[in-house]
């Protein structure tokens, strides 16, 4: 049984703060080939497309394309604020290893 990714309340709240839904966009989370470990995340504001999984909360949407969905099974999409900056992060139990810079991963 495939478990879809989850989005934290903190991530939905940040999307509401930046007004993502006002212009019809959502947070797109995709997995692409590349980086020093083989895969990397593409996280950006984008319009939903046919076939996307749409996760909704607090009037906001997070979208994931069909190709990326198996790579994000049971992952948690969150937002964090640290001294080095604020960003959306993915806690992905499917990742076998990641590179030293933390931007790419292997499965």
UniProtKB/TrEMBL annotation:
Entry-linked InterPro entries: ATAP, ATAP_core_dom, FeS_cluster_insertion_CS, HesB-like_dom_sf
Domain called Core: residue spans: 6-102
Pfam families the record matches: Fe-S_biosyn
GO molecular function: 2 iron, 2 sulfur cluster binding; 4 iron, 4 sulfur cluster binding; iron ion binding
SUPFAM superfamilies in the record: HesB-like domain
A biological process from GO: iron-sulfur cluster assembly
Domain of life according to the entry: Bacteria
NCBIfam families linked to this entry: iron-sulfur cluster assembly accessory protein
Identification of the protein by name: Iron-sulfur cluster insertion protein ErpA
Organism: Roseivivax jejudonensis
Record gene name: erpA
